[in-house]
Write a structure and sequence with these properties.
The chain has 422 residues and is of the alpha+beta class. Helices cover 28% and strands 29% of the residues. It contains 13 helices and 20 strands. The N terminus is likely disordered.
Length: 422
């Protein structure tokens, strides 16, 4: 879920606030505001990103995040903002970075520039180093690999999924803190999501909340527990409104009421080791199939089912390609796995409601045999429907056949709900 490491959780206030619109940020960062629907559309123009040595994971994750139109629209709206020193280093990095790679794509903006969307989508820019993220990288590597990395060139290879989660967690926390500051100085405004009216961003334990009895379908009851963060409106942000979902785990034992646990998630992890998991559609179905727990209870065999209680706007799927040997080394599952461009999350995966349709807009692939080595690349889809392969400082348009050939290396797949009203 959206819960960063304790050492990096709370931004440090202090220093000089250069220039940021507090009322805009108060409303834009609120989880329940209509901000996403009102933002001007943008397009991501992939630029080549130079590799410092082992930073392909950074480059690939940046491409994937900026390919998400909801996120880049927020960054574009914040162009020109300079947040208080040390208050929002990750958000500031993305705002500064977006200035070079995100362009307005409204009808009015395209007409003003005398161009078209296909022309903008197919354009290219000069390669450069992602300098706004150097300090962020050093801190992340120190947290995951220990201290001692003083330059970007000395950084070790990292897990792209871990860095993606870290970046989203930090953006989430920084938006909560900035909104709390804005509410303190400007008042709460008309939106509920985010800090309370007094400006405080409540602290939570991260544990499970109280239990209660819940009556569901056919008047059947269960003992339900919710994660504290699910109940706390003050812990929601614009990032959690885009990437955050809820999972419901149900354990059933004969003769007892089902035990239900509801908790947040940002990345959905799907196993693909089974021969039946030939694509994400099958992997999703297997994800929600009952798992039988032989040693769970003396009363008999228990079954556990995991379903999506609240689906996210953007669904990030991690393909579990890595297993671990007895000596702690990772080994990679290199089987092909179909990454459907149009993915239907069916009734068996959802707790309630009709099936949901998602559209693929980015993938991150790992090329190599284990997590300690190898190389990351990304593929991103533009608003015109064309796909671009991003391999550090090289960018080229890629067709469906080439993407299908690389399905044995896809590690992360990012989807966005279609036909959704924001």
């Amino acid at each position: 879920g959206i819960s960063p490491p304790a050492a990096a959780k709370v931004p440090a206030w202090g220093g000089r606030s250069e220039s940021w619109d507090k009322r805009k940020c108060r409303d834009l960062f609120a989880a329940d505001s209509p901000g996403l629907a009102t933002l001007a559309p943008t397009e991501y123009v992939p630029h080549g990103l130079y590799n410092y040595g082992n930073t392909c994971f950074l480059n690939s994750v940046l491409h994937a995040i900026l390919a998400c139109r909801d996120v880049r629209n927020v960054f574009f709206e914040l162009d020109g903002c300079r947040f208080p020193d040390k208050a929002a280093p990750v958000l500031q990095g993305f705002v500064d970075f977006s200035r070079s790679v995100v362009v307005g794509a409204s009808v009015e903006e395209l007409a003003r520039r005398g161009t078209s969307l296909p022309s903008v989508s197919g354009s290219r820019g000069a390669s450069f180093y992602p300098t706004p993220f150097e300090k962020i990288l050093e801190r992340f590597c120190a947290m995951t690999s220990g201290p001692g990395y003083t330059t970007p060139q000395s950084l070790p290879q990292q897990d792209a999924q871990e860095f993606l989660l870290h970046a989203l967690d930090q953006l989430h926390e920084e938006m909560i803190a900035l909104r709390a500051k804005a509410v303190e100085e400007c008042g709460p405004g008309g939106h509920l999501g985010g800090p309370s009216a007094d400006g405080a961003a409540p602290e939570i334990s991260g544990g499970l909340g109280d239990e209660w009895e819940e009556v569901g379908r056919n008047n059947k009851s269960s003992v339900t527990r919710r994660h504290d963060g699910v109940l706390d409106e003050g812990r929601k942000s614009r990032i959690s409104s885009i990437f955050g979902g809820l999972l419901r785990s149900t354990v059933r034992v004969g003769g007892s009421k089902p035990s239900v646990c509801i908790e947040p998630f940002t990345v959905l992890q799907l196993g693909i080791a089974s021969e039946e998991a030939t694509g994400l559609r099958e992997a999703l179905r297997m994800f929600s199939a009952p798992d039988y727990l032989d040693d769970y209870s003396k009363e008999g065999v228990a079954s556990k089912t995991v379903q999506i209680e609240e689906p996210p706007l953007v669904l990030v799927i991690q393909l579990l390609r890595f297993t671990y040997t007895s000596d702690g080394r990772s080994a990679k599952i290199t089987k092909p796995c179909e990454i459907e461009e149009d993915l239907v999350v069916g009734r068996d995966t959802l707790v309630a409601g009709p099936p949901l349709e998602y559209e693929l807009f980015a993938t991150v692939s790992h090329h190599g045999n284990n997590l300690q080595s190898g190389h990351y690349t990304a593929c991103v889809r533009d608003l015109s429907g064309r796909w671009h392969c991003c391999d550090d400082d090289e960018i080229w348009e890629v067709g469906q056949e080439e993407r299908e050939e690389g399905s044995c290396d896809v590690y992360l797949a990012l989807y966005r709900q279609t036909n959704v009203t924001l």
